[in-house]
Amino acid sequence: MRRPARQIQDLVEQTIRDVEMEVAVKQEATGVNMMYDFIKHEILIDMERIRKAYGEILESMPFETYIRTLTIHELGHGMDRDALLASLDRAVEIIKAKKQACAEKRDRDLPFMEMLIEEHERDIVFEETAWANAELLNRYYEIIDWQDFLKVKEHSMASYQTSYEKDLAVYQERKVTQDSLAII
After folding, report:
1. Where are the chain's structural domains?
2. Which of 4, 69, 114, 136 has the most CB atoms around its CB within 10 Å?
3. Is the model's pTM score more than 0.90?
4. 37-82 tens-digit pLDDT
């Protein structure tokens, strides 16, 4: 069943009110189901992506539960806003380096790969912190069933972990190759 955008936004806004926070909500096609924009202090919802992501959850749960869980996770990022803002300069450096790096050579350029691994590791820390904050919100306000909360968390974290492990394996392989050549 295709959920109307207004229904999804209403669920997000209601969840924000339920945990007594103030964060703006905006619909935007970002390619990410829901994200916290720490610069503008708003939650962005990609309606098409969020519907698709819900369909990717392996274990069934009510759509409302899924939306509310993602929302308190994004609010968890909001609780960590100062740390996110402090990371902005380095994030900009990495974005610029990615734009300048030649796509065909990225996986052979060890300094580029090291920067990419650093970015993954920082993203994972921010995600883990947001989930820890979301857990605090959920325990206090009792928004979502604990088992459903864990299902969404696991599904969400898996995408970050899979991407990190893939790039880490490429990096480690290139590093071993370079180290072997240096010995010869």
Report:
1. 5-183
2. 69
3. yes
4. 999 999 999 999 999 999 998 888 999 999 999 999 999 999 999 9
Distance of alpha carbon 184 from alpha carbon 170, whole angstroms: 22
User: Are the beta carbons of 9 and 26 closer than 8 angstroms?
Assistant: no
- Which residues in 51-183 belong to E strands, given as ranges? none
Q: Decide if 47 contacts 8 (C-beta within 8 A).
A: yes
**Whole-number Cα distances in Å, 162 to 97, 131, 167, 178, 180:** 22, 17, 9, 24, 27
- Distance from the Cα of residue 21 to its chain's centroid: 20
β-sheet bridge partners, residue 24: 42
Q: Is 8 exposed, middle or buried (0-12, 13-18, 19+ CB in 10 A)?
A: buried
